[in-house]
Amino acid sequence: MKKLLLAFLSLWFISAALLAQTNEDIRLAHDYYQRGEYQKAVVLYEKLYKKNNGHRHHYSNYFKSLLAIKDFDNAEKLIKKQMKKSKDNPLFYVDMGKLYQNKDENQKAEEQFEEALKMAKSQDIPSLANNFANAEEHDFAIKTYLRGRELNKDDRAFSYELARAYSKKGNTPEMIRSYLDYAVVLPKNIQRVRTELYKVSSVEANMEELQTQLYGRIQKEPEELVYPELLIWTFNQQKDFESALIQVKAIDRRMQEDGDRILKLARQATDEKQYDVAIDAYEYVIAKGDGSRLFIPGKIELLRCRNEKVTKSSNYTQEDISTLKDEYLEFFKMFGKTSNNISTIRELGHLYAYYINDLDSAISLLHEVVEMNGGSHVAKAKAKLDLGDYYLMKDEVWEATLLYAQVDKAFKDDILGEEARFRNAKLSYYHGDFEWAQGQLNVLKASTSELISNDALELSVFITDNMGLDTTVVPMKMYARSDLLFLQNKVTGAIATLDSIDRIYPGHMLADDILLVRANAKIKNQDYKGAMVYLQTILEKFGTDLLADNALFMLAELNEYQFEDKAKAMELYQSILIDHPGSLYVAEARKRFRKLRGDAIN
Questions:
Q1: pLDDT-based confidence at 412, cuts 50/70/90?
Q2: C-alpha–C-alpha distance, residues 159 and 138, integer Å
Q3: Angle CA(326)–CA(329)–CA(335) in degrees, nearest 5?
Q4: pLDDT of residue 22
Q5: Pairwise CA distance, residues 350 & 89, whole Å
Q6: How far, in Å, CA of 515 to CA of 521, rounded?
Q7: Rounded distance between C-alpha atoms, residue 123 and residue 126, angstroms
Q8: Which secondary-structure segment (H or E) carries 84?
Q9: CA distances for 137 relative to 70, 149, 301, angstroms
Q10: pLDDT tens, residue by residue, 254-274
């Protein structure tokens, strides 16, 4: 018994030692292969290959190592051994083709590849095509997938794989055709298709090819919804919302939908300032009748869109403002002022305060919101902030401070609370209490809201740069007072105050700030050429100072939107990126520069 146990233990230790040695050989062979020491790798792989009775486990790296050291005779023998073991495996014919290629016998290589393709069965297609692709034989990879379609009797099989193969070949039309097939086979993966097509969509010819194919398929396969959906996506990429709307309307009618797609497109068009298309879309939704669940939301968003179209226009008239006001009043006559349309009430209040100069009506409207039963606490808080602004515009500072403080207290750890604190800090700045304002701004610079943080930083830097260097704070107080007068629409008084600074304190360091304020006043009065004169003066006289990037960005906007000089706008945006890399405008300038250049932007 003891002898039997000893024999068993001896056998076990020998086996374990052999296994350990084998594992060490595998590791070392792989290490040599990875480092490109193919001669050393060949010695170990040959040993492992023989030990495993020619098992394929070590075949691939062994074969590649033989090719690397140009031992073509042994490589050929190795392939033929594998062919005898696996007579029906087409992959070894691919390897034989690789061998012939290495020997510069390309005709023989082609014959081996064709033989692999001819003998392939349905289950061989994925691995065979992958093998061809790894060998950079993309034509044969494509042929393999097409052979798979024949074997499977499915003319849309392997669509995704074919698309990738055509992409590597640079055959964009066939790549697009294959991705469209894939979209039909697996419509749930349409986002994957969009992602792949997006990579080539920046080339105009590719986008034209995609749209041509989509139009053709829509005609031939009108029942397939995926094609118009992709066509809409292409129009959205090009910001061609007018063409997109035609397709969206067609889908909406065909599917008898409620207008959700239309509403989504209308919002996108509004964001891109294509107001006429957006208005058309909103009116389509509203035309479905007051029984539609989107009837009132459509009305609300249509009003907001019309508001933007008028107030952001370069040439609106008071008649436009009056018409817009009447549309709001008509809406409230129909639906009343409720907790569901607080945002619309606020829009009308903003119109009264800033464009009609009727602060009493604005304040009365906002009081209705604040005193309303029910409604979102957030919506009411925003109304309180508006109301505080309107009281400030009436120079009723105590009322404004009280409202800001209420929002601050109710939303202490929220962005709304930070917004309220910023407005209180700005109120102190308006009234010359710079020290208290600076204390609040220093805290707000760390706000989680980028907008609040940037605004706080900008005002804080302005106060710091213009305080402490002069023997008097009077010019700063005068400047802050002019800021408040502008807010209160007392433009004549504001300009007179700025003139006083120039007259009493000639050459004061506020000179560039005064020029910027004058430029903004010109823009508000739609005198864009006058604004450009002031902005260019800033760049000429104060080109290395803090406001240079502000002036550049404003000039770029004027050229882009008012004068439609895209080349000049691009030049100015690029100047911000190159000459002012630390500017707060860098991210937006880069986005607009790329858009004007025609880059595809998500």
A1: very high
A2: 15
A3: 140
A4: 61
A5: 76
A6: 10
A7: 7
A8: helix 72-85
A9: 21, 19, 55
A10: 999 999 999 999 999 999 999
Q: Kindly report which listed range (6-20, 111-125, 361-375) carries the lowest average pLDDT score.
A: 6-20
**pLDDT(220) > 90:** yes
Contacts 24+ apart (CB under 8 A), 471-477: 473/432, 473/434, 475/501, 475/504, 475/505, 475/508, 475/510, 476/432, 476/434, 476/510, 477/432
Provide the CATH topology of domain 510-597: 1.25.40
145 has a pLDDT exceeding 90 = yes
End-to-end C-alpha distance for the chain, whole angstroms: 78
Beta carbons within 8 Å of 500's beta carbon, 6+ residues apart: 478
- Alpha-helical segments (H) within 450-547: 450-466, 474-487, 491-504, 511-524, 528-542
CATH T-level assignment (fold) for domain 313-410: 1.25.40
pTM of structure: 0.78
**pLDDT at residue 15, rounded to an integer:** 43
- Residues 422-481 pLDDT 10s: 999 999 999 999 999 999 999 999 988 988 999 999 899 889 888 755 557 899 999 999
Q: What share of the chain is helix, strand, coil (3-state, %, to 5)?
A: 80, 0, 20
Task: Give residue limits of the domains in the chain.
Answer: 239-311, 313-410, 414-467, 510-597
Q: Do domains 313-410 and 510-597 have the same CATH topology?
A: yes
Complete DSSP assignment for 223-264: T-THHHHHHHHHHHHTT-HHHHHHHHHHHHHHHT--SHHHHH
Q: Structure tokens of 16? A: 């374990």
